[in-house]
Amino acid sequence: MKLFIRNTCVRFIYTNDNTNRLHIRAILCHTYHLALHDYYNQARDLILMIFIQHTIYLADISTQILYNRTMVQLGLCVFRFGNIDGAHQILIN
């Protein structure tokens, strides 16, 4: 049930957000959730899809904080799989 609600909310924001701020925050929250539950490949693909790495410095502070937390969670996800080099690469960027 929770998965259905999350997917419905995320899909609604993806299709109806005109400001792009909520869209980016929704993707970051979605990526954080996937990384937290060890869905590394899906989380990595989602974060790479929006090319936010090069423009995050233009975002507001709360979005930058969410981005940093998401990247740390993604690094921890890779670390839990035993890929220390992959975790290092994610965390140094």
UniProtKB/TrEMBL annotation:
Q: Which Pfam families match?
A: eIF-3c_N (PF05470)
InterPro entries per UniProt? EIF3C, EIF3C_N_dom
One Gene Ontology CC term in the entry: eukaryotic translation initiation factor 3 complex
In this protein, which residues make up the domain named Eukaryotic translation initiation factor 3 subunit C N-terminal? 9-92
Q: Where are the transmembrane segments?
A: none
The name of this protein is Eukaryotic translation initiation factor 3 subunit C N-terminal domain-containing protein
Name any one GO molecular function: translation initiation factor binding
Entry keywords, A to Z:
Cytoplasm, Initiation factor, Protein biosynthesis
